[in-house]
Amino acid sequence: MQMSGLYWARRIGGLVAGWAAASVVIFLLVRVVPGDPARLLLKNPTPEKIAAIRERLGLDRSLPVQYVLFMKNVLGRGSFGESIVTGRDVKEDLRQMWPATLRLAVVAMVLATGAGVVLGVLGAQYAGRWPDLVASAISLVGVSVPVFWLGLVAIWVFVLRLGWATMTDNIWLPAAVLATIPMAFVARVTRAAVGEALQQDFVRTARAKGMAETMVVYRHALAAALPQVVSMSGMEFAQLLGGAVLTETVFGWPGMGRYVAGAVLARDYAAVQGALLVLVAMVMVVNLAVDLLHHLLDPRLRR
Predict the structure, then answer these.
(1) Cα angle at 96 between 94 and 101, to 5 degrees?
(2) Are residues 60 and 131 located together in one domain of the fold?
(3) What is the per-residue DSSP string for 228-246?
């Protein structure tokens, strides 16, 4: 129990340190992007107007001072600053945007996990035969085709040709596109884990007792592979939270990915920094939750 407490204390401490390091990296990377927010805000920029805006935004100060003031607002007041695009506190913008991103990621992960587990189990159960070849081909396509291209094709087929509902009203289309890459990884991990479990003694014993093959595969082999499948699904879900920029932009989905893309183009430092810090925190929390769930599912880790 003491070792377990020490382990989780280290994990949480590592997350805090990682988030702090990410804040420095994000702060510096945002300022490496070419372009001056003060100039972009002005239709007819003059040196006097540019200087006034830079002073209002705090850009006339040194980088260390800017970073200290930014983190002071974040940790002290829970504020990421004012967006130069919307004119609102970034916190209020994110409060409106993040539920859409979370909803899209959850639906996409449900689709990815369901399809990935089915493909992986079929591949393991019929290793070397045509179901395995079909499942492997689908996984290869899912991990190889660029999401933005697949999104454009999906829009052309299902929206323009078949006349489905508008893209922002239909979550299933962007979720299905977003699910392709995690589906491929879940399928590969499931195939390997279930295939390994099918070679174990407890599976041979179940077969020797006359248990139906479907029960052997799903009740025993898949149950033994569950910790690895859950870990991969959790890691891919964390990636979806931070990697939905292209999908949200292509489909016009009103989430954090689209918000970040627009903020980068406008050189909206406060919006980019706030959104990325929130996304990093969400990814870290999901990873911690997956780690905890893995410990609960795998008795070897509990011991």
Answers:
(1) 75
(2) no
(3) HHHHHHHHHHHHHHHS-HH
pLDDT tens digit string along 90-99? 999 998 888 8
Nearest CA-CA partner of 181 in 105, 290, 103:
105
84 falls within a domain: no
Task: Please report, as a single letter, which amino acid is at residue 255.
Answer: G
Whole-angstrom distance, CA of residue 58 vs CA of residue 65: 9
Question: Is 293's pLDDT higher than 70?
Answer: yes
Domain count, the chain: 2
Q: What interhelical angle do 180-197 and 147-154 show, nearest 10?
A: 110
Kindly list the distances between the CA atom of residue 118 and the CA atoms of 6, 10, 64, 113, 265, in Å, as whole numbers in the listed order: 38, 36, 52, 8, 41
Residue 292 resides in a domain: yes
- The residues, any chain, with a CB within 8 Å of residue 124's CB and separated by 6 or more, are 132, 190, 191, 192, 194, 195, 198, 217, 221
Q: Which of 242, 106, 119, 268 minimizes the C-alpha distance to 174?
A: 106
Tens of pLDDT, residue by residue over 154-192, are: 888 888 887 776 544 578 888 999 999 999 999 999 999
- Rounded to whole angstroms, the Cα distance separating 26 from 273 reads 6
Please name which of 266, 264, 244, 268 lies closest in space to residue 255, comparing C-alpha atoms: 244
Q: Cβ distance 250 to 155 under 8 Å? A: yes
Q: Six-digit token pair at 31?
A: 């300022």
**Per the domain annotation, does 296 fall within a domain?**
yes
Instruction: Give the separation between CA 247 and CA 149, rounded to whole angstroms.
Output: 10
DSSP, residue by residue, 76-88: II----B-TTT-S
Give dist(CA 100, CA 287) in Å, integer: 20
